[in-house]
Structure prediction request, 186 residues.
Amino acid sequence: MLEGRLVRLRALERSDVERAYTWVNDREVTQYLLLRYPMSRTQEEKYLAEAAEQGNGYADTRLAIDTKDGLHIGMCGLHHGSAEDRHASLGIMVGDKSYWSNGYGSDAVMTLLRFAFEEMNLNKVELGVFDFNERAIACYQKCGFIEEGRRREHYFQYGRYWDIIDMSVLRREYEALQQNQAAAAR
Ligand SMILES: CC(C)(COP(=O)(O)OP(=O)(O)OC[C@H]1O[C@@H](n2cnc3c(N)ncnc32)[C@H](O)[C@@H]1OP(=O)(O)O)[C@@H](O)C(=O)NCCC(=O)NCCS
Prediction:
């Protein structure tokens, strides 16, 4: 388990299927994700079974986000890990909308970054975010991510194209953020 301030990140289980199936078919959630087509329960069961059986590792780490009370509110992970270049891509979905904008997402991201830099020895964590996803961008900026560039008109949704913003945080930037936060708390 990875302990955050508000959340606990744990391995995914097959028994997570009901909540996960609801979230990946909730348009209010999936409009922010690369999830265009409705997902069957069978697909979700297969995804969770694979995650549970393969386990987590450098190439792919897939985790559930639980509150400290043990309520499953979302999923996150580090994907496409490169051992040579020491970077990976972060993905996150707080599927339970009642938890949005209450600090749970940024706590999950910071917990994942701590694991990425202090345990997996990564040097860089990157992600892509739709330009209209202002909540996610604010969350990532709080966690030290900066914009690297834009994939212009990369995703078609709601009858038009949207840019994807590429963001990343380097290990030294994460460490500086940690030091600044510790100094501010003193
Ligand atoms: C993106 C996501 C992980 C963020 O988690 P969260 O718990 O909602 O976010 P946090 O509360 O930690 O941080 C969000 C910040 O954005 C702010 N915010 C919310 N709506 C905003 C808006 N429309 N514009 C600007 N800032 C906004 C919040 O006030 C908060 O900042 P604060 O802590 O300084 O007040 C979560 O909302 C989510 O999973 N959304 C659906 C799926 C998704 O977008 N995934 C990411 C795909 S790249």
The two ends are 28 Å apart (CA to CA). The pocket of coenzyme A is lined by residues 29, 32-33, 92-94, 100-106, 129, 133-136, 138-139 (CB under 6 Å).
